[in-house]
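Service request form, structural biology core

Requester: graduate student, group of Dr. S.
Request type: structure prediction, single chain
Budget code: on file
Notes: please return the result as structure tokens.

Sequence provided:
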Amino acid sequence: MAREYDVVILGGGTGGYVAAIRAAQLGLKTALVEKEKLGGTCLHKGCIPSKALLKSAEVYDTAKNQAEQFGVNVKDVTLDFSRVQERKSGIIKQLHNGVTALMKKGKIDVFEGTGRMLGPSIFSPMPGTISVEMNNGDENEMLVLKNLILATGSRPRTLLGVDIDEEQILSSDGALSMETLPTSMLIVGGGVIGIEWASLLNDFGVEVTVLEYADRIIPTEDEDISKEMKKLLSKKGITFVTGAKVIADSLSKMRDSITISAEINGEQKSFTAEKMLVSVGREANVEGIGIENTEIEVKDSVIQVRPTFQTKEHHIYAIGDCIGGLQLAHVASHEGIAAVEHIAGIQNEPIDYTKISRCIYSSPEASSVGLTEQQAKAQGFDVKVGKFPFMAIGKALVNGNSDGFVKIVADKETDDILGVHMIGSHVTDLISEAGLAMVLDATPWEIATTIHPHPSLSEVMGEAALAVEGIAIHM
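Core staff response, request fulfilled:
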């Protein structure tokens, strides 16, 4: 049976379902195809479950190791990891129900099954008609469309030569489903996902070693943030080995342990733990969706799009992780909105990816927007930098966590803010002020003259802005 739509969206993750909602708001007849569950990776295998675990780990660590500093005497603190997982599942269920309700509210047709693009056919002279193999075993649905948005997301990247069995050798998907915690964990990859897992496992009492190929952890972040993160997590007991080239064929598995070697400064060293987590990035889901039936271009394993998110087939758009770039849920959402509004004839400025905030939800947290100091200098800017520590902020001391700082990078010539970088407690909440400042082309002076409430963590932004000119008050 063929059904006709103004817009069909292939993939019901954050980018896909947000695009569907916006399309429905604009009066477009909309369908969404999802082969697993609405919400996609972010809701079920990424952002939400990992942050739920991080919060439980933070509470456990606070009760066990920090409560006494607040004058709270806690004895015999224990961890019930099954309850931790139950709480995580409950949050996912509640949010999944919410997304399902939003689909009904928008009168969006949801097809639960695997969608694949067809070439020109009896259904349409244009490529892109979606054939849906229904999960319930019903015959395929044919969705004939005026416009298609591909939002197929990504999956954990594997390490060549390493077989991920999700028992001893885990991806982030498998790690989220662990029923019990291991005594020790090797983490291959010191990027964002690896650092978040290292942090939460360490707070749960797991012995953690991180092997990172680059010469520093979170290598895409500002060097000062990278150094501070390593210092603070090392202080908590996490072992970091940088410049480590993992040798896949050295892998050996025993019944209750795993050993792998890495080349470090020309020497080979072995590492052993109960389990190993492979965290070396994510790769786009572009296979099996019928791209070969279209003129869509794929380069470096991601779909190529214009600033409008149109592919070479002008009625077919692509957003989110499958187009590469910043593989973040909030990025996919706004790309989805932009694509739908272009379909509806609404003219907007292209998304400026340099003004999108990035967050790491470890303990301590880190967040950033714009250029790092190193990137700014490499692009020829003559920079001035302001840096202010949380230890001089009253609310940070009240909260019992004064590690970290805020760093503002500005252009000496124009006074424009080029980037803001933070590490410390709650900085993933504080970064939006910096993001707004960059969207509005604010200067450090404008941030500094904004009166921040006292006592609050946000005061650190005003002080860091003053520090750009060397006139911070409390330092």
